Amino acid sequence: MLSRIVLASIRLRALMLVLFALLLGAGAVAVRALPIDAMPDVSTIQVSVLTSASGLSAVEVERTVTIPVENALNGVPGGTELRSVSRGGLSAVTVVFADGTDVWFARQLVLERLRTVERELPASAGTPELAPVSSGLGEIFQFVVRSSQHSPMQLRTLLDWEIVPKLRGVPGVIEVNTMGGELKQFQVVVDRARLNAQSMSVQDVIEALRTANVNVGGGYVERREESFTVRGQGMLRDEQDIANVVLRADRGGAPVLVKHVADVQIGAALRHGVITHGGEREAVTGIVMMLLGGNSREVVAAVGERVKEIEAELPPGASIEVVYDRADFVGRTISTVLKNLAEGVIVVTIVLALFLGTLRGALAVVLGIPAAMTVAVLGMHAFGVTGDLMSLGAIDFGFLVDGPIVMLEAVIAAVAGQKLAGDARARAYAEAAQGVARPVAFAVAIIMLVYVPLLFLEGIEGKMFRPMALTMACALFGALVYSVLFFPALLVTLVPPAEGHGPRWMEWITARYERIVGHAVALRWPLLGASAVAFVVTTFWFARAGAEFVPRIFEGDAVVTIRRAPSISLDEARRLDLVTEKVLHGFPEVVSTLGMTGRAEVATDPVGNDNTDILVRLRPTEEWKTARDFDELSEVFKEAVEAHVPGTFVSVSQPIEDRTNELISGSRADISIKVVGSDIEELAALGDRIGARVKAIQGAGDVRVERLLGQPVISAVADRARMARYGVRVEDAFTVIAAAREGVRVGDIYEDQRKFDLRVLNPPSEPSAAALGELFVETSRGLRVPLREVVTLAEGDGPSSIRRQDRERTVRVDVNLRGRDLVSWVDEAKVAVARDVPLPTGYRIAWGGQFENFERAQKRLALLVPAVVVLIFGMLLWMFQNARLALAVFMMVPLSLVGGMLGLLARGLPFSLSAAVGFIALGGVAVLNGVVITSEVRRRLSAGEALDVAVTRGATAVVRAVLTTAAVAALGFMPMAVAESAGAEVQRPLATVVIFGMFFGTITTLAVLPGVLRAALAGQRLAARAAEEGQGRAYPQEALGS
Questions:
Q1: Is residue 764 assigned to a domain?
Q2: Structural domain tally of the chain?
Q3: How many CB atoms lie within 10 A of CB 853?
């Protein structure tokens, strides 16, 4: 089959060249339409349910809101995990679904379950709402609105009603979350003295405003030929309308109006979050969230253009400043990938020209790269793979040209010294190409096969490495197609027989190798034994070096997270944020800062006043002066902030890393140690003990124990006996409490298309339980009694938040590592915690974070890799029809890994899944080189050469092809190995493994394999059989595979 394809390629070469040009054209079109992002989206499929519960404490939110929602969602089809956070006034419940679940179907399932629980929620709870359909990569753009001529309330109003609606209309944008400034309200602030003078209560004011702020429809009336709609318009329009609402109208007396007992004003809503900018002032911000599965490059570009248009329409003095743009990171990362790929093409071309000694031949080989990449891009479209660091960054063009190199070598050797032209030349080229087509196809197929385990990875690791495997498999398939379909035609067209004797330095190496290989064959057993010992020793050494999931990718920006006491006020947190930002601005690496304390309006991250995230935009690393890398800069930031702002816990992360970790495991840290139990105080104590123990382990950079307790609470407990005595309803008493600070919402005020809350406030004289008790509540007999007479008021501490996983309470100890690999740290920490922190009955520890992904991938690969190994051996056995030869080639695979392990050890890099991909590639190339050498030896045996002569001359004949394939593969990765730009962290281990592995693996193959082949083919009977199989064959390649 392959022989006929090669022959057709040469005979129909004009047609093949046209088809090749069309293929490249299709590739150019496909590349332009390829979705581009920095990283694959590894977020799980999840649906978050957010429920406001105004006035309820964390314990009450858990009991009355979170647990009913959890019960409703428990067992939802496809659900794999259920976790929740309960805070004062907010419940957030998240359902994680199995990979592959359609997100819209998942949301529909959740909505159906929520219908059954809404009636079970307390009256103070809002309607459960679903969080936006976004992901860890969803927050793509953030900006602040600035103006020296507008108040914080005016800026927030401008943001909410002018800017956000326009941005929501951008295709691909699912939500624009807003935060900061002051949310405008129309407020009726009761004056208790004036209210008492009129013998009225707060309930009277609330009821009057609710009934006065209405519109009604009266149907329609007909008059002659026309119909008139009847409308009753009583909606309040402004402060004057509100002030003139009638509270009471006595006969013969003047009516009592709202303005007689209260002050009507425009005020700010009670805030749950604040934004600071640059360490100088408050700000308002908008966070643009992309729809799950969107094309970030296109969406960010569209948002950027729309922001420019909106800015031009803003009032004088107002402007928009971009503080985070995903396009920056995407651009830097893709630039790294494209730069490395471009440099790889140049290096491969130079190496080919130097090793082959023919520029035309090198050009014909290099043309296989765009052909293979075209097939790869078409495959990425077919499989829904985005172009990113993982899918494109692992491609080594050296692997894609191995087949053409071997075929070119065969043709050059076959026609060397001959004067051929016309049909004779075409026949000679065809016979030589046909002779190696089958082993080349087998070798490339085996290289494709070694990537199969990556296709079966699950979870986060599958989402990261499956696109890489698919892209590489498609590229290799394209390289195979090019080798047998287009390359023969290009060979006849571009490479005349006169070219290709090879450079003199290569002839010198070949001559020297021919002498050395004879000695290597004679010393085959000592060499094989030494190689085996080297493999065992290196593996033992390497196994103790540590491992991690994937290297940390530097995104170019930082997130400095500040954790403080749960009792801190929002104003104090704002003051400390400004101080912290000024400290950060003292570093020359910092361009700008944006502090976010508390939660936004759409609480995708349900935190309190004790949590601040400061987004820090950094200068390019080449301009850094304080630190050499991000880990060092993180330590410097942490030390400086903790020194200037005592009582804070500081950790440093990155925007995408931070958000992705939060969505995946509910934690933003590298490692999350979860203690599961029932009693909050016991959980808090265990968390403190575990945190203190793991903090002492080398490599623990940031250790934070979740604060469960310490939230001051003013509680008001209904005294039902006294209420009955006075005739006070619980609803009336608690309405007074609700109006004390947040206010009771009684309607809306419309200003054109804008809508604002109308609230009644009855603030106490001071923020204390005693002052709250002096507020009056009306009895059923029209009397007014102090609130303290019907409720029991007390001040104390309670939980600030309650975290649950799979319907059980948990406390979390978060750890970020510095200067140590993930797996060895976790192994040591597990032993230390189990030994030093005994757990009470009914409590247990769950370890989560990135190491969990690594362990899952490790277990998966432990099953898949042996299966693929057996399959590869089976293919070799099928190809050679000889178990000894198959085993001889297969033995080169483990020996080729020695160099990769030494490379990681030499550069101080831990083993990771990125490095594993490099080892996979090494194994494939080892098989390719083994097949090439073995096929040539068998060909010579079939031609009648003696065994020793066939082995030495066969290995010598293909040494240039073996060295060339190794050189282009290794040097093609050199730009990745030395790159320092964005995303290079993931490519570095892979490139290191391939470069070092190719160097040592090629030497091992050329030195050890000929001797092993000599032993495998020893004996007249086997040699005679090999020669007999070659008799009467039409083409040499049939003997090679017989």
A1: no
A2: 4
A3: 25
pLDDT of 774 over the 70 cut: yes
Q: What whole-number distance in Å separates Cα of residue 706 and Cα of residue 710?
A: 11
**Secondary structure of 677-746 in the HEC alphabet?**
ECCHHHHHHHHHHHHHHHHCCCCEEEEEECCCCCEEEEEEEECHHHHHHHCCCHHHHHHHHHHHCCCEEE
Is residue 657 classed as helix, strand or coil in its secondary structure?
Answer: helix
Residue written as token pair 């059980």: 808
Same domain assignment for residues 489 and 509:
no
Placement of tokens 């090629």 in the chain: 1002
CATH of residue 1010's domain is 1.20.1640.10
Q: Is the pLDDT assigned to residue 1029 strictly greater than 70?
A: no
Q: Of all helices (H) and strands (E), which one includes residue 894?
A: helix 892-907
363 with 466: CB under 8 angstroms?
A: no
Residue 1025 CB contacts under 8 Å (≥ 6 apart), including other chains: none
Task: Give the CA angle between residues 346, 897, 973 to the nearest 5°.
Answer: 15
Q: What are phi and psi of 545, to 5 degrees?
A: -85, -10
Given a cut of 50, is residue 1031 above it in pLDDT? no
CA atoms within 13 A on the CB side of 1042: 20
The CATH number that applies at residue 51 is 3.30.70.1430
464-514 confidence digits (pLDDT tens): 888 888 998 899 999 899 988 888 888 888 777 655 456 788 888 888 898
Residues 385 and 407 in one domain: yes
Helix (H) or strand (E) holding 288: strand 284-290
Question: Does 811 have pLDDT greater than 80?
Answer: yes
Residue (of 1004, 880, 1009) closest to 933 by Cα position: 1009
Q: Which of 92, 108, 134 is the last residue of a domain?
A: 134
What mean pLDDT do residues 323-348 have?
A: 80
In a shared domain, residues 959 and 1029:
yes
In the chain, the amino acid numbered 216 is V
Which of 241, 242, 219 lies closest to 230, judged by CA?
219
**Per the domain annotation, does 374 fall within a domain?**
yes
Same domain? For 986 and 951 the reply is yes
- Phi and psi angles of residue 1009, each rounded to the nearest 5 degrees, phi first: -60, -45
With respect to residue 422, please indicate whether it lies within any of the assigned structural domains.
yes
Mean pLDDT value across residues 237-244: 93
Q: Among 786, 781, 777, 793, which Cα is nearest to 732's?
A: 777
The whole-angstrom separation of Cα 1018 and Cα 1008 is: 16
pTM score, whole prediction: 0.80
User: Which residue among 134, 165, 181 closes a domain?
Assistant: 134
Asked if 523 and 646 sit in the same domain, the reply is no
CB atoms within 10 A of CB 67: 18
Tally the residues of the chain: 1042
Q: Is residue 265 assigned to a domain?
A: no
Instruction: Read off the CATH number of the domain in which 663 is found.
Output: 3.30.70.1440
Confidence check: pLDDT of 1035 > 50: no
Is 225 exposed, middle or buried (CB count within 10 Å of its CB: 0-12, 13-18, 19+)? exposed
Q: Quick one: residue 743, left, alpha or beta (phi over 0 = left, psi -120 to 50 = alpha)? A: left
Residues 28 and 61 placed together within one structural domain of the fold: no
Q: From CA 179, how far away is CA 152, in angstroms rounded?
A: 11
Q: 956 is in which domain, residue-wise?
A: 504-544+881-1042
* 597/11 Cα distance (integer angstroms): 72
- What pLDDT is stored for residue 580 in this prediction? 94
- 528 and 563 share a domain? no
Give the count of beta carbons closer than 10 Å to the beta carbon of residue 226.
8
Rounded CA gap, 198 and 205, in Å? 12
83-136 confidence digits (pLDDT tens) = 999 988 889 999 999 988 999 999 999 999 998 888 888 887 888 999 888 776
**Claim to verify: residue 492 and residue 517 sit in the same structural domain:** no
Of 343-357, 373-387, 416-430, 881-895, where does mean pLDDT reach its minimum?
A: 416-430
DSSP-derived secondary structure letter, 135: -
